[in-house]
Design goal:
globular; 5-stranded antiparallel β-sheet; Neuraminidase
């Protein structure tokens, strides 16, 4: 899903450790040492939870807890599904890609890992060596103990545990201090679907779940590869397609005749979902957008147009009503430009750039007390904090 970082972006990573001021707010590195962080949410006791894709070793996906004041990290759950994928054209790890917390119940979404391999431009096949995990592209439910944000030791899942979950066997995991969590498989969705092409009758398209939202009895999970939102019944695991995002015409080379939508995050606001569309190659400047999706019927429409590689959105309130922060993975992917955080005082307002340089951001969360925004940066393995006076 993400492109290779150029030398210019590595230089920007070095600069990313320096605090800088844009207007009245300041931005600085808040936490380091994360393994491909993909999603961040607020949690109990002013803490933050981060979903991590893992290292280049299989099944090192992880959920970490960050102290909301200091940024100090400790492991909540490790050993989650992950694998080294080449679907983006070069080896890259893919593991936990979505989290949602409701009370003390945590929903964790897995990406496709190494279940499929790239065998040529636009060509994919199931991994002939077999996937590293039997529960890629799944959603699991974890019931956490009280005080989970300050536990002295984390919980570890084994490959045998993953195999048990694939067989719909619920687990109880115990940490070094005797605390327990229960883990249940909600749904284990297909890793790929058939997509035959001329000269490649066995070609497939790998799924890539990338986020999760909960409303009433259902989970809503964007699939960045299938360009749709899955709706999954929490109790039964029954899946249906809730919304489909069609391709758009590509006006000129490079690239093929169409540009894919690539939904890559999801948030509920009242009776609608906010979904940023990253858009696929050639990642045209101004072609990305945020759409709203009705929870009543799945119909969707553009809310904020004219973005580039949109990866997340936050709705906030101002004196005139709804306002929005948008996070863009890159201001120009083909030129290896860094990402940015922008503010819209309304959906049709001109954007104000809040932070002009954010390195490969993937997700953001706001502390409702302080108003600080926390941003995950996937390749440097950091979290940026944006503070407001």
């Amino acid at each position: 899903m993400f492109t290779k970082i150029s030398a210019s972006l590595f230089i920007a990573v070095l600069l990313g450790g320096m605090a800088f001021t844009v207007g009245a707010q300041t931005s600085s590195i808040f936490s380091t040492g994360l393994h491909h962080p993909t999603k961040i949410i607020t949690a109990a006791d002013s803490s933050l939870l981060v979903a991590e894709g893992g290292t280049m070793t299989p099944n090192t996906g992880r959920i970490s807890v960050l102290d909301g004041g200091t940024g100090v990290r400790h492991t909540l759950i490790d050993g989650l599904p992950s694998g080294v994928s080449n679907l983006g054209g070069q080896p890259d790890t893919d593991g936990s890609t979505g989290i949602f917390l409701r009370g003390n119940v945590l929903y964790i979404v897995s990406g496709v890992g190494d279940a499929c391999i790239n065998v040529g431009p636009g060509l994919e096949l199931p991994n002939p060596a077999g996937a590293s995990s039997p529960i890629f592209d799944s959603i699991i439910e974890v019931t956490l103990p009280g005080g989970y944000a300050s536990l002295a030791s984390g919980f570890t899942m084994t490959l045998a545990d993953q195999t048990a979950l694939a067989a719909n066997t619920s687990l109880e995991l115990t940490n070094a201090d005797g605390n327990t969590i229960t883990v249940r498989m909600v749904a284990n969705l297909p890793d790929y679907r058939a997509e035959p092409r001329p000269g490649a009758p066995n070609n497939v398209r790998a799924s890539h779940l990338f986020g999760v939202e909960v409303f009433q009895k259902d989970l809503y999970v964007p699939d960045a590869a299938f360009n749709l939102i899955h709706r999954v019944d929490i109790a039964t695991g029954a899946e249906s397609t809730f919304a489909i995002f069609p391709n758009r015409a590509n006006p000129a080379p490079p690239g093929g005749p169409f540009i894919e939508a690539v939904p890559d995050n999801i948030h509920r606001v009242g009776n609608r979902l906010l979904v940023p569309l990253l858009t696929g190659f050639p990642f045209r400047v101004g072609y990305s957008e945020v759409q709203t999706v009705s929870l009543k019927n799945g119909q969707h429409e553009t809310l904020i147009p004219g973005l580039t590689s949109a990866i997340d959105v936050l709705r906030v309130e101002n004196v005139d009503g709804d306002a929005y922060y948008t996070l863009e993975f890159s201001a120009n992917q083909l030129a290896n430009a860094p990402g940015r955080l922008r503010y819209f005082s309304s959906a049709n307002a001109a954007p104000v750039t809040v932070v002009p340089v954010v390195i490969t951001p993937t997700s953001m969360a706001m502390d409702e007390t302080s108003g600080d925004i926390f941003i995950t940066n996937i390749f440097p393995g950091t979290v940026t904090r944006v503070q407001f006076p």
